[in-house]
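Reply to thread "Modeling small-molecule complexes from scratch"

Following up on the discussion above, here's a worked example others can learn from. I took a protein sequence and the SMILES for threonylcarbamoyladenylate and predicted the complex. Inputs first:
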Amino acid sequence: MRVLGIEGTAWCASAALHDAETGSTRIESDPYEPDSGGIHPREAAEHMSEAIPRVVETVLDAAESEYGPNAIDAVAFSRGPGLGPCLRTVGTAARALSGALDVPLVGVNHMVAHLEIGRHESGFSNPVCLNASGANAHLLGYHDGRYRVLGETMDAGVGNAIDKFTRHVGWTHPGGPKVEAAAAEVSGTDRGADAADLLDLPYVVKGMDFSFSGISSAANDAYDDGEPVEEICFSLQEHVFAMLTEVSERALSLTGADELVLGGGVGQNDRLREMLETMCAARGAAFHAPDPRYLRDNAGMIAVLGAKMAAAGDTLAIRDSRIDPNFRPDQVPVTWRDDESSVARLGTGSEGDRESEDDLESEGDLESEGDHDRRGAEAVVDVVRASANGTTIDGPIVRKRRIPKEYRHPALDRSLRRERTVAEARLTSEARRAGVPTPLVYDVDVPGATLTLQYVGERDLARLLRGGDGEGADRTGGDRTGGDRTVRAVRSVGRHLARLHGAGFVHGDPTTRNVRVGEENVRVREGESGSGRTHDRTYLIDFGLGYHTGHVEDHAMDLHVFEGSVTATATDPDRLIDAFEEGYREEGEETVLDRLREVRGRGRYR
Ligand SMILES: C[C@@H](O)[C@H](NC(=O)OP(=O)(O)OC[C@H]1O[C@@H](n2cnc3c(N)ncnc32)[C@H](O)[C@@H]1O)C(=O)O
Ligand SMILES: [Fe+2]
């Protein structure tokens, strides 16, 4: 199968021919280069209408001279997301060509193409995908027929966030390569590792979501204040890419996946690639970054995915082929994958750390086996048996140490570990005072970034979700189905978050991994059969990203983060999400739920 791909979502007019049999791809691109400032939508559209026919013709001519008159089996085009006027030009050209050549039309989601090209090249079966492009920044993972958004920017795309600064400085689009070159002047000297070179900029991650609006403005302010532009560029990269690397690691940890692929134009940046590579190496995950010509916008990725879709029969009738400027990656039914398994691999044995922890517990040999290590996304957790903990504390304890992250600038790393250790200690206790079950905090060692905490629960909610019906059924006494057990657990998480918000702070990272679930004995009520009864207690842990805030938006984000982690990993997310929101409604404010719906529906392509 040979597919003609056409790309033109914003700045790059491009056509490509991909031959699925030989694997060869020929790409012809013509970028729009504004004389000043950023992308002007009207100019970009004008560029597309001139350049698209040209690049298509070049590729078609080459195809015909190589393969003869019936060179093309399908025409694939990027349907969105992107700038409407640009997309319309591409759509019109693609429809006309599919008619003229009498071959099927394939509508490709540009963001899914950015991620599939890495999967295609690497041969990874089920990676977490980081899309770092101009107008977007997503973490995606395949689950139950779609690429789910595990995390994403809450405002600007990563490239746009950087370009906003370069526009302020007066540099032309694209700004990313210029920032990289300027930053290299700092990191090229050994001053790079020196704390003095790193400007303090906002670092905002919320679970696997993140925000760049504050950092762009702070970088602009630093420039206006006379900070050297190289140092701003260096600090901007260190912060922005560390945020992306951190959320990628959290996604690997949440899903249990051990493969990461990179996509998008910002992926051409060496420092970002280096950070991701370092992070993956440290946790034993495989990492793949495609060749730069497949990272920046190009029609090769459209043709490669187009060929897979066409082979799966996933083609479009002309009347259904409208473009979609807000086309989200999770709207695309994935028809072309033969591997149906989910990116979420918890409980299948590929994720050693949590698995062995739970085995240890279920065999009831925590005390006899002794100490046990676990490595989460940011900390190493030691479970210490009761008789060896050297205290009078009855029951196992955990020592949780935030380990240095080699990928991060040392000064940034130190301050994050310190801040989060302090926040966790403080908010874990505050939450308990607000009536939310949390571990007792026995000791805080701020310089060592280490907390000593009570061991709570038996397993995390992520594992309970994966366990499905079988797991909970016989462990909960009167409860018939584990499904009900998980529903009750998520409802209580809703109540817990409402209480935190009522007390004036957010958890910051309420994913299913940060909820522990354990049985608790309750007294037998009169007339009830059976010798005893237990019910579940759900604890919130890991308050390191929490902070005090009364903003409805921040409260809604907490709910969004939790729902994101459920949607990405649960088999029947809708029921769970309803229960979670019911729980929140019981104790929280309706305005927060209204805002949550707004956050969810927000188009983020700016
Ligand atoms: C919707 C679609 O039009 C859009 N595509 C897009 O933004 O082009 P893409 O090629 O994926 O990414 C361009 C961005 O990539 C940045 N970029 C290019 N080289 C870079 C580098 N060396 N370091 C940092 N950023 C770089 C540019 O500054 C620009 O912001 C998208 O994928 O979001
Ligand atoms: Fe792109």
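What I'd highlight from this example: The two ends are 36 Å apart (CA to CA). The chain has four domains: 2-110+295-327, 121-293, 352-454, 459-601. Questions welcome below.
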